């Protein structure tokens, strides 16, 4: 669960282990439309890169070209080398290869590990002469173009009890089939929405167009509804802020 930063953190609301106490994971909750413009600090760029890159490259549904996989690999190696100055770039590539080239990726290409490393060698040598954020920004541009970039998925059911996924991101809401988290079957921009609310496990979305029907679906629990509305309201708030600034 996401911590409500407007309220004091209570140990009662956190999962804990008797030996070590509460466990917290620092993660990104809201994503910008344009990372190149909106991410200013290098440490923030690193956080976005690590979280989204490893999520996308390990997902079997995400299709990534071989060129982009090389760009991502170069950026990741340069970042790890920056964090571990005594480590050799090519040793890092060998050690971390399984993270950026999972088994399903190797199976989908007729290219061996050694061949991938040979393809990566030249662009990596060029990147080694640059600041580590240069290849990082190139990789962030790819991540931003991914259809799964920054999407939070929630399991829902319609009135006929058919399973779907609700996707929430910086652009609006999308409806997906459970077997395809890449291509939405319907999408609504933030500018189309009027109000969101929930009662118990039922979630309601109304639109600004007068003749538009209210969108009603059911979530697994009221806690999931609460999480959904926080993500939706947080993204909508940032959308309104961007609209005011433009």
Automatic annotation (TrEMBL):
UniProt name for this protein: Ezrin (Trinotate prediction)
Subcellular locations according to the entry: Cell membrane
GO MF annotation: an example: actin binding
One GO location term (cellular component): plasma membrane
Keywords carried by this UniProt record: Cell membrane, Membrane
Residue intervals of the FERM domain: 1-243
Membrane topology: Peripheral membrane protein
SUPFAM superfamilies recorded: PH domain-like
Source organism: Myxobolus squamalis (Myxosporean)
Family matches, as PROSITE patterns: FERM_3
Broad class of where this protein is predominantly found: membrane
Source organism, top-level taxon: Eukaryota
One Pfam family per UniProt: FERM_C
């Amino acid at each position: 669960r996401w911590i409500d930063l407007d309220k004091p953190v209570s140990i009662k609301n956190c999962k804990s282990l008797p030996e070590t106490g509460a466990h917290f994971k620092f993660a990104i909750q809201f994503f910008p439309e344009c990372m190149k413009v909106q991410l200013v600090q290098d440490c923030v760029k690193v956080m976005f890169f690590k979280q989204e890159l490893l999520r996308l490259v390990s997902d079997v549904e995400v299709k990534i070209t071989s060129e982009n996989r090389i760009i991502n690999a170069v950026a990741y190696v340069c970042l790890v080398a920056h964090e571990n100055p005594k480590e050799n770039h090519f040793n890092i590539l060998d050690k971390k290869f399984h993270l950026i080239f999972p088994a399903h990726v190797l199976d989908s290409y007729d290219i061996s590990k050694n061949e991938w490393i040979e393809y990566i060698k030249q662009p990596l040598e060029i990147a080694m002469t640059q600041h580590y954020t240069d290849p990082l920004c190139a990789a962030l541009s790819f991540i931003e173009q991914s259809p799964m970039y920054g999407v939070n998925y929630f399991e829902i059911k319609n009135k006929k009890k058919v399973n779907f996924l609700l996707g929430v991101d910086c652009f609006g809401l999308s409806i997906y089939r459970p077997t395809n988290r890449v291509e939405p079957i319907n999408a609504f921009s933030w500018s189309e929405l009027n109000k969101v609310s929930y009662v118990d496990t039922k979630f309601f979305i109304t639109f600004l167009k007068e003749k538009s029907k209210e969108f009603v679906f059911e979530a697994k629990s009221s806690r999931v509804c609460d999480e959904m509305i926080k993500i939706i309201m947080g993204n909508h708030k940032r959308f309104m802020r961007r609209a005011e600034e433009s």
